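Q: For a teaching handout, I want to show students what a protein-ligand complex looks like in token form. Below are the inputs, and the small molecule is coproporphyrinogen I. Please produce the holo structure.
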Amino acid sequence: MKPLDKILISNDTSYNPIWIMRQAGRYLPEFREIRKKNPNFINLCLNVNLSSEITLQPVQRFDLDAAIIFSDILMLPYGLGQEVKFIKNFGPKLGKLSLNDIDKINEIDFVQKIEPVYKAIKKVSSEPIQKNKNTIGFVGAPWTLLVYMINQKSPKKNLKKNFFKNEFYINRTLSIIEKFLKIHIKNQIDNGANVIQIFDSWAGLLDERHYSKYIYTPTQNLVNYVKSLNIPVICFPREIKNYKKFCEIIKPDAISIDYNVDPKEIVKTIKIPVQGGLDPKILLTDKETLKKEASKYLDIFKDHPYIFNLGHGVLPETDPNMFEYLVKTVKDY
Ligand code: 1CP
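A: Here is the structure, written as tokens, with coproporphyrinogen I included.
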């Protein structure tokens, strides 16, 4: 049984597997080396050899329990034909969304456009090193993708006041997103992804009165779909106001928590396996603090199935030696 399956399928409490969100990325000199020569981020994601290599860099260097495929949640709008660019010191910039255009996209066009992502998953998952490790596929949650596709850039802290104004446009876009997310998930699984994580990075932007329509219903549809394919699914509804309620409604195989929630409260109220929580900024302090803070999570979840991870992605300014020390701390615990 692969390390994450012990938690996700067997609810084992004796072992804490570790992988880290954004583990393949900017804090690693070997990534920056490749990135320097490949200024177009989307093209890099679509380069099967390089994206496979980048995916495996942290797995080889730190002996992590899982590889997460080097891609991006915004490959979905890209696959639908919306322009997506990544601009240095700005982040993602998307073109205007034309419902007329994306309405015409069919499954074949979509899959063809992002096929290298699936080929990279196939390549990574068939590497010998992955034999006893998980290969994680992922998608953005419908709500988070809707935010990027309509807002055309990162919303940072707030949605524009008129975000919900055109209800027809929003509803139609959401249903197209849901349809293609299922196609995207299915292709990742067919090519070797054996866990799916759903990133709802902007769940925290919504008022609770909107949760049902934009978070619960569409996420539940996706979670049920992944379960129907017999693959475990982890949800990360970042900064959602009520993790307990989310778990009771959605019933994912595990819940990934952000660093603003109290893990003691989580362990008391949530029955399903838990992942993550540690503030990525702790990796910017010193080894003593890192060990103390990581051990805090391991102590709290001692008798609860727990996958070690952070409460959000690892920061680009992280020293790889601190990352290594974190992995050692978790493995020695
Ligand atoms: O080198 C660069 O400039 C690109 C930086 C980068 C990287 C390394 C981006 C741009 N995406 C990625 C890879 C990525 N993105 C992965 C790879 C696998 C891994 O975890 O190692 C994953 C899982 C993502 C997922 C992703 N992309 C999320 C969800 C997780 C999260 O961080 O909340 C989100 C919101 C995105 C959008 C995105 N892509 C890139 C950036 C800088 C952003 C966020 C910008 C914003 O604040 O809106």
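A: Two things your students might notice: The chain is about 50% helix and 10% strand. The mean pLDDT is 97.
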